[in-house]
Amino acid sequence: MSKPKLLWLQSISCNGNAHSFLNHPELFSILAHFELIYHPILETNYSLEDIIKKRVECNVLILEGSFVQEGFLKAGVEVSSVIEYYAKRAKDIITVGTCATFGGIFKQKEPDKISGFAFDIEEKTTRYEAYASKLISLPGCPIHPRWLSFVLLMIANGKKLEIDRLHRPVELYGYTVHMGCTRNEYFEWKVDAKNFGLKEGCLFYEQGCQAPFTRGSCNKILWNDTSSKTRVGTPCFGCTEATFPQSSLFFTKTNMGIPAKMPLGVPRRAYLTLTGVTKSFKIKRFSQRLLEYDE
Amino acid sequence: MSILKIAEKKALKRESIIQTALQLFASQGFHKTTIPDIAKKLKMSVGNLYNYFASKDILAKEIIKYTSESLGTKIREVNDTDASSEEKIHQIVTLYFTMAKEKPEMIEYFLRVYLSNREVFNDGCEGMICVSGFITEIMIFFDDGVSSGELRDQDFFSAFGLFMGYLGGMVFLKGEDVLPQEIEFYIDDISRNIYNALKA
After folding, report:
1. What does the pLDDT look like over B143-159, one tens digit per residue?
2. CB distance B132–A258 less than 8 Å?
3. Which of A128, A145, A208, B51 is 20 to 30 A from B105, comparing alpha carbons?
4. Structural element, H or E, at residue A286
5. Under an 8 A CB cutoff, do B135 and A281 touch?
6. Residue in B126, B133, B156 closest to A257 by CB
7. Which superfamily does A5-172 belong to?
8. CA-CA distance, A267 to A238, in Å (whole number)?
9. Chain B: nearest CA to A178, how far in angstroms?
10. Alpha carbons A142 and A14: distance in angstroms, whole number
């Protein structure tokens, strides 16, 4: 049986997801399940010219970068027309990164014209209906290499991926970035991080952490198989969300001390009731350095 | 009698104990009121009353939760409307002063029992635990006002103290019988003062 033909094409992109995928420790054993037709960085048997002249076949199409209907040319050719040619023929389309999925960073340049491939933030683009049946969304800036390998291996093994309304695999995006954060106890007891670089304290109250309302597996599938942003003390910037990039990072918007945005699915009354209760207690362990507390 | 009816009857009895105890605690003071006093007023046996509340301290804590929920429910009705923050302030002041007039024991209990007998409430009613029904609604009122741009963003407690400290102070003065006018006389001016202090 021949291997599925894998084609990685870019529109308006910074190469971030292509680079991130190179960081996969088992990159070549993952790719061994496919015939790699073209990749922006890895060497393949075909040139960009072959792709543009539509000389190759494609089963699995990976798309990276934001889209504009017309006016973005590569080698004198309209990129979106080349991509649509292969999109029509592919059996699976994976949009990697927030740009290809929702519009992302590059959308900021011309918010009215630039979008993702099938979504403009959360709105469906005109392409959506044509490709919805084979579309998988992997937002992230960049995506974790293991998110992509999970999807690729599912496809290579003929398994069905459960997806949500924005076509994100629920196995990866059914979680919030908050889940699995090593600072969870500080969130529960409403103890904020007093400064940058501390192991202690939650980043939600003072430092703009968006993990409680951001979908992603960053604290379940660790970065570099080692850690995550929030674990090392950098707030989550919500890079997997359709609204990314938000402004005022490192800052939690509050109204008289009440967070303007609630954790995913948590009603404001429920959150505030719980907050009022937990703030009524001072727990000694959470007021001390982790490595100093010794009961 | 069905199990459901028994449960309903018990819930009603429980509430009548809370209301009677609330009146006695608020008028005679917490320490001067005994469980037999409460039982006598309810025409029930002391033993039966203990079936509902195992101690006077537990009863006291349940009462503060009850009054807080009761006031919170009324403020929630105001929060759930589309009124402006200015109008909501007027409505909250009105309902607070109306409660002070019609059910003075509800507010008196908070001022003269809850705030004055901290040793009773320290275990189990620390901080905001037993008053969260009310505090949560005030938080929601402030949050809505700031996010709509009508109220100025500031520390929660500086706003909370101004609003509720003011109202509590007025009801305290009423309880001391030093206000020359009926309490509703002050509703308009006090609402305006609070709005002027909190507006953006």
Report:
1. 999 999 999 999 999 99
2. no
3. B51
4. helix A284-287
5. no
6. B156
7. NADH:ubiquinone oxidoreductase-like, 20kDa subunit (3.40.50.700)
8. 20
9. 24
10. 10
ipTM, interface predicted TM-score of the complex: 0.82
Q: What is the pLDDT of residue A1?
A: 65
Q: In Å, how far is B174's CA from the nearest CA of chain A?
A: 30
Distant-in-sequence contacts of A76-80, Cβ < 8 A, 24+ apart: A77/A52, A79/A11, A80/A11
Number of C-beta neighbours around residue B82 at 10 A: 6
**Architecture (CATH level 2) of domain A175-281:** Irregular (4.10)
When CB atoms are compared, the residue of A260, A276, A281 closest to B135 is A276
Sign of torsion over alpha carbons B140, B145, B151, B152: positive
Instruction: Give the Cα separation of A214 and A244 in Å (integer).
Output: 10
In the predicted structure, residue B119 carries a pLDDT above the cut 90: no
Nearest residue of B to residue A255 by CA position? B143
Q: What is the pLDDT of residue A197?
A: 84
Is pTM beyond 0.90 here? Answer: no
Chain A nearest-CA distance from B47, in A, is: 33
Q: pLDDT at position A294, please? A: 81
Q: How many CA atoms lie within 13 A of B191 on its CB side?
A: 20
Secondary-structure class of domain B56-198 per CATH:
mainly alpha
Q: Nearest residue on chain B to A276, judged by CA atoms?
A: B128
A256, A269, A281 member nearest B136 (Cβ): A269
pLDDT at residue B1, as a whole number? 64
Reported confidence tier of residue A258, pLDDT bands at 50, 70, 90 = very high
Q: What's the mean pLDDT in A70-83?
A: 89
Upper half-sphere CA count for residue B123 (Cβ side, 13 Å): 4
Helices assigned H by DSSP within A32-183: 48-52, 79-89, 97-102, 104-107, 128-131, 145-156, 170-173
Helix (H) or strand (E) holding B166: helix B166-175
Report CB contact under 8 Å: B147, A255. yes
As a whole-number percent, the residues of chain B with pLDDT over 90 amount to: 76
Q: Is A277 on the interface with B (CB under 8 A)?
A: yes
